[in-house]
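Box 3.1 A note on notation
Throughout this textbook, protein chains are presented in two layers. The first layer is the amino acid sequence; the second is a token string describing backbone geometry. Keep the layers aligned when reading.
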Amino acid sequence: MKDLICDEFQNTVSELLMRHHSILDVLSKLQEASARINRATVKSVTGCGCIQVDAKKKSIPPDVSLLDFRDYFESHLHGKLCPSCREFIETEIGRTLFYMTALCNLLDLNLYDIFLKEHKTCTTLRVFNLT
């Protein structure tokens, strides 16, 4: 079922993409959409204040195992997005998905296949795929 939804989305994007059909347009719109996610997230901190960032360098013991490594890191986020900020960020992420899918269409790539391949890589490599 999920692959049908993804394929349907990819087909819909293909039908809707009119003005920005050049690969250069799609690449620049994808980058712009990504920047808008960053800006919306920053505004949630600096404008609204519904979330806060408390970041500092973490001390990691030299003898920590890879499996325990994640215990020494955190997101640095405190609070929860308010409904307004959540809606705005979701909209911006949706726009990014739209242009990412448009890029897939122009390059004749299947979004669902990419999703499955990345999922397989993550689940196969597990801890050795740390980012």
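The radius of gyration is 19 Å. The mean pLDDT is 88.
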